[in-house]
Specification:
Number of helices: 14
Structural class: mainly alpha
Radius of gyration: 19 Å
Number of strands: 4
Strand order of the largest sheet: 1-2
Strand content: under 5%
Number of domains: 1
Length: 333
């Protein structure tokens, strides 16, 4: 659901990642050869990832063919799985754990970790680490999905090739002690593969089969693979389309854009020029819940007492920034 300056703000302060070396031995979920090894010459293409991603998308196309044979209950369940998966990335890995833009209670953190496992986009620890690197070194070789390398690379290509050495080097130096101290994050990291098998594939498939007699075939390909592929692509559009197409009302000196289509598909993550200008804002948008299901969800969690301390940018600061660095496309100020 993966920027001018990358700063992780905490109540008006920032963490700039002062060299905390990561010693974890847990591998990326897609392939343990995904990380470059200093002692070996890098292989450019990661064929295992290419094969898996190709198979996933062919399976998703078959899921499209099966949609007419799916029951209404199964289609509704597919939408529920889509929303849960998306929130696990947007409200969880992104706004909570990457940016610490609000505080979540233990039950909410558990829920978001489960939803994040359903999304299957690497565990929270790796996702947040790479996202912090993306913000701090946006549009450079250290950016995991550097949009300067084109739409395809920033959308999916970055997962199909070895990481640039700068990505690995900068990632090892990021401040990640807050993630290591979170028992929910580290539990998910230790048991990630099992969590993915259960929550990304078995639960979406077995619930419609058990409760309303849907076929396992439809359950696997529609709420399973099709839903998973669509959530992946919606998240990737934030890295690709929202860095290429749209206006820049808050900072025209950076690539991230305001893209309403991405905001809709990624449940609120398409207000990307705003987000990269004010990365600590929990709403990632000047406009609250407009086209922003994730902000509405966090607001609901606050109302229920499960979240608190949402960080926000003042209207005065937004207007001042638009006048100073914006492209004059936003007339709200």
């Amino acid at each position: 659901m993966t920027v001018g300056e990358t700063r992780i703000h905490h109540a008006g302060k920032q963490l700039n990642g002062d060299a905390m070396v990561e010693n974890s031995t847990v591998d990326d979920v897609f392939d343990d050869t995904y990380k470059a090894k200093a002692q070996k010459p890098p292989r450019i293409l990661v064929w295992r990832n290419i094969i898996l991603m190709s198979a996933l998308h062919f399976g998703a196309l078959y899921g499209l063919v099966l949609i007419p044979s799916a029951s209404n209950s199964t289609l509704a369940w597919t939408a529920v799985c889509y929303l849960l998966s998306a929130l696990g990335v947007t409200a969880g890995a992104h706004r909570l754990w990457s940016h610490r833009s609000y505080k979540a209670s233990f039950p909410l953190r558990v829920f978001l970790a489960l939803a994040n496992s359903m999304a299957f986009q690497n565990d929270i620890y790796e996702w947040a680490r790479d996202h912090r690197v993306h913000h701090k070194y946006s549009e450079t070789d250290a950016d995991p999905h550097n949009a300067m390398r084109g739409f395809f690379f920033s959308h999916i290509g970055w997962l199909l090739v070895r990481k640039h050495p700068d990505v690995i080097e900068k990632g090892q130096k990021m401040e990640l002690s807050d993630l290591k101290a979170d028992e929910v994050v580290m539990f998910q990291r230790r048991h990630y593969k099992l969590c993915v098998v259960i929550l990304c594939f078995l639960v979406p498939m077995l619930v419609p089969w058990y409760f309303w007699g849907e076929s396992l075939l439809v359950g696997y390909f529609v709420p399973g693979l099709l839903r998973y592929a669509v959530v992946l692509n919606a998240t990737w559009l934030v890295n690709s389309a929202a860095h290429i197409w749209g206006n820049r009302p808050y900072d025209m000196t950076i690539n991230p854009r305001e893209n309403p289509f991405v905001a809709f598909s990624a449940v609120g993550e398409g207000f990307h020029n705003y987000h990269h200008t004010f990365p600590f804002d929990y709403a990632t948008s000047e406009f609250g819940c407009k086209l922003n299901v994730t902000t509405a969800f966090i607001d609901l969690m606050c109302f229920m007492g499960l979240a608190k301390d949402c960080k926000r940018v003042s209207k005065e600061m937004i207007i001042a920034r638009m006048k100073r660095t914006g492209d004059s496309s936003n007339k709200s100020g």
